[in-house]
Amino acid sequence: MGHAERLRAELNALHEAAGSPTLASMASLGSKQLPPVSVSLSSVAGWLKGPAVPSAGAYTRYFLALVRHLQGEAQKAGSDFAPRPPQYWEALLGRARTERKARGGRPPSAPADHGPAPAPMTLPPATPGFTGRTDELDQVLRWLQPPDGDGERDEEAAAIVVSAVSGMGGVGKTALALHAAHQARARGWFPGGTLFADLRGYGDEPIGAAETADRMLRALGVKTRDLPPTPDGKIDAWRQKLAELAAQGRPLLVVLDNVRDPAQADALLPSTPHRALLTSRHRLSAMPVRRIELKPLSAADAVALLDLALRAGGIEDDRVTTQPEAALEIVQLCGFLPLALRIIGALLRDEPGRPLAAQARELADERTRLDALEYDSAESDERPLAVRASFELSYRHLTPDARRAFRLLGAAPGVDVSTASAGQLFDQGPAHARRLLAGLARAHLVEQRAQSGADQEPAEGERWSMHDLLRLFADERGREQAAYDGRDAAVARLLDHYLATAQAADTHLQTTPGWPLPDDFTDRGQALEWLEAERSNLVAAATAAPAHHAAATGLVLALGTFFDLRHHTNDWLNLSTAAVGICRDAGDRHNERAALDGLGRALIRAGRFKEAVDVFTAVLDLCRETGDRHVEAITLTNLGQALAFLENFVDAVNVLTDAAALFGEVGDSLGGARVLGILGPIQINLGASEQAVGYLTEAVAFWREIGDRHAEGVTLVNLGLALVGAQKFREGVKAHTDAVALFREHGDHHGEADALNNLGAALIQMRKYNEAAEAVLSAARLSKEIGYPQCEAKALANFGQLLLRKRKLDKAVTPLTTAAGLFRETGDRHSAASTLDLLGQALAEQGRFHEAADVGSQDASLCRELGDRHGEGIAWKNVGLSLCQVHRFDEAVEALSTAAALFRDTGDQRREAEVRVQLARASRGRHN
């Protein structure tokens, strides 16, 4: 095909996609150009029908405006036509003009003829409701484009004529291939024909290459009497036909659907200038093809597909747009899989009055979800409208070992497995387990992804996941074959593996020197990497296996240090809560105590101190039942810490004193040091900073002596606060600086952020503002990186306070506003209120009184929620003063009256008197 002919084909395809506007409407676009271009109807008709090509100059400018307009209309009409950039049209037009000039200019008029016979076409209709896949469609079209369509393509790329779309069953491979093929045909790329053959590779009777060649030769017009009788003869005839079409300059596109075995397709693949497009559930890695692996749709595209499915056939169904939350839940439960969404669309079309929420509730039950994803109809024997049946086509072609592996993966708790974990599940070594997993990945029944970390062994670094619906199918098949597969024993092996490895990792996290370290990990960093990679699986393993209560409790104990270190509070709470329930159901009092201890520590980390007190009180009762004095001492320490966080300092001191005595009895000096570390902050809160310094100095010396550098860092943070409280700023700064270094050494980023923030606060008090700014901004950046909003808020509040001290009022507004928002998000209303107070001051001092009044109102509301009546009075006072400045005297009087009443109720006579003076002025202003 020449360039001029290609230009006409592309322009005609675009004209049709835009709704076939009239020649007059297209020609009229010329008058809207600057300067206007006069274009005749015959010129536009000549470009569409041939043989004319737009000339240089004004016609080129008009032509580019025309295609831009037509592409816009095509998009509005919802056409699948992929828009082309202006550079493409300009280059194609230039090549067409060059070609015409080389042939002697404009061809002379010739008697009209009917042209060549239409190219053979056996493509099925494009799938209705096709949406999304824009990037994938563009990529396939680039691959299909014949070599003379783009002068920039290199010869090596043009020589690869076979492309493949692969992916799991139901992901939309055929739909993408058909849309690409229809677009390529509309653009006139394949005058030799566009042929389609379903090779039924996953059916009971796959179609061989010779039978496919026979059908395609017939489609190309070869008579029955001329077809060779033997399979080899048919293949030879097919190749001869391809050669004839190539010699005539008539490239052909062949679409081969459902290829399972390369032998089905190898003999049919053409060479340049022809193109072939294959679809397969396998990767077809042995074939020299360019391949796109389709994934499930994005959430937005899945919702759009569901909407199109409900509106199919022109039905006015607005359920997706009017019930967006339920629509999103449905597409999530369908795993964003196009087949599942089409089935749900068909079911919902049959029940136009059914709310989407009702359909979502039906899908939410995992036990019956695959039953719900079935429609009592079928497109063909090969494409049943049922997700289960679609998956079955892939499953039944696996080897017996691979089928067993697939079924056992359905029993594995969590979102994925490592190769090593899969080996435990399969009861196979890592090498054999990997071969099984790789085979499942080639069939798109699992997905492989590599972990980062160049020093990791493949069995550790590789991870394998499964689509949610495939997991349900695997679990269903696995339950049917549970006895044959040894399913219960397989799950037990996996849980034992998780527990043993988690315990080994936990040993590496313990910072007390001298403990023997297992060789499962080379160092602490590798242990942390494994825990992070397996975190969701470890939680799922413990919560999903009530029959294994010992493993559940063992994981609670093994993961506590990790969860605390990395602030994975929700995981800690979920795992601990589940373990408590499992142990109670099993009547296991010993492990129940251990699970409750983990739950209490998780509640402290979550800031739920009252609940933590209740839990540790229950643990204390269990300890006293058994007479275990050492565990009782540990529990008293935890209880004392929870009471201290509740600011019940007297009870906390009493409980911790008892704990210290018990630790002395049993000779546990580490426990005694921990008690000192908690008593120190209590004394800070009681205003006894010197006594706090004594406790914490003794604790730091102990941790330093035994070489527990992480515990030393934690205690140094509190020692720094005590020293600053005792006005010993230099010593406090040194303590915080040492803590930062120790946390960095141990990879405790949360501790490092806290220490940096405390360091900055101390430096602010010393008026070392430049050093302070560096510290608090480092804390804020690190906190944002690791997802630690509590510390980020504190650091930004400190930075705002620093800017206020430097009288950079305008710059203080942003960090204070952000800090107040973060405090609210994290539930720290006390800090939010104090930060809003600072923010109001900054705004008022800039003369931004309306904003200051709004911020003060928010501050007052928070103080009221907290029961802080005095703080609320201060907030209303600030609101009233700001409102007076902008002459909003009625509102000012109300705010100041409220403030005066609150100061009276809280006994602050001085502030009450000050407010009443301001109230009198506001009243006069109102009357004036």
Task: Note down, in words, how this protein is organized.
The longest helix has 23 residues. Strand 3, helix 11 and strand 4 form a beta-alpha-beta unit. Among the domains are: 100 residues, no CATH class; 160 residues, P-loop containing nucleotide triphosphate hydrolases (Rossmann fold); 93 residues, Helicase, Ruva Protein, domain 3; 82 residues, Serine Threonine Protein Phosphatase 5, Tetratricopeptide repeat (Alpha Horseshoe). It is mainly alpha-helical.
Task: Give descriptors for this structure.
10 strands, globular, Rossmann fold, single chain, three-stranded antiparallel β-sheet, mainly alpha, 928 residues, 5% strand, five-stranded parallel β-sheet
Give the structural class. mainly alpha
- How many helices? 45
Envelope shape? globular
Assess the beta-strand content as a share of residues: under 5%
Distance between the termini: 89 Å
SSE arrangement:
Elements: H1 3-17, H2 23-27, H3 41-49, H4 58-76, H5 86-102, H6 134-144, H7 155-159, E1 162-166, H8 173-186, E2 193-198, H9 209-219, H10 231-247, E3 252-257, H11 262-265, E4 275-280, E5 290-293, H12 299-310, H13 319-322, H14 324-333, H15 338-350, H16 356-364, H17 369-372, E6 374-378, E7 384-386, H18 387-395, H19 400-409, E8 416-418, H20 419-426, H21 430-442, E9 447-450, H22 458-461, E10 462-465, H23 468-480, H24 482-485, H25 487-509, H26 524-543, H27 549-566, H28 569-586, H29 589-605, H30 609-626, H31 629-645, H32 649-666, H33 669-685, H34 689-706, H35 709-725, H36 729-745, H37 749-765, H38 769-786, H39 789-805, H40 809-825, H41 829-845, H42 849-866, H43 869-885, H44 889-905, H45 909-927
Parallel strand pairs: 1-4, 1-5, 2-3, 3-4
Antiparallel strand pairs: 6-7, 8-10, 9-10
Helix pairs in contact: 1-4, 1-5, 4-5, 6-8, 9-10, 12-14, 12-15, 14-16, 19-21, 19-23, 20-21, 20-25, 25-26, 25-27, 26-27, 26-28, 27-28, 27-29, 28-29, 29-30, 29-31, 30-31, 31-32, 31-33, 32-33, 33-34, 33-35, 34-35, 35-36, 35-37, 36-37, 37-38, 37-39, 38-39, 39-40, 39-41, 40-41, 41-42, 42-43, 43-44, ...
